[in-house]
Design brief:
3-stranded antiparallel beta sheet, 2 helices, alpha+beta, 76 residues, globular, single chain
Length: 76
């Protein structure tokens, strides 16, 4: 995978556990291995980040806990 935001996605995945402990449910903005901001609403994340940092692209993602593929799937 070599997309413009590959580096930011890799950073998010590497730090996902820590981010989830601190900011689960919020939106993280990442650019060049740097967390630019944490927001409660994605609608605020993009315009505020553009205003503060400019630039055409950055990574915005709702913070979720990592999924453990070895965990048993709950049944009902």
């Amino acid at each position: 995978m070599n997309t413009p935001l590959h580096r930011e996605l890799a950073y998010y995945l590497y730090h996902q556990g820590t981010l989830a402990e601190l900011y689960e449910g919020q939106f993280v903005v990442i650019k060049n291995d740097l967390v630019l901001g944490i927001y409660d609403d994605a609608g605020w994340a993009c315009p505020k980040t553009k205003k503060l940092y400019g630039g055409p692209s950055f990574f915005v993602k709702r913070v979720t806990p990592p999924v453990n593929p070895r965990s048993p799937v709950p049944t009902r």
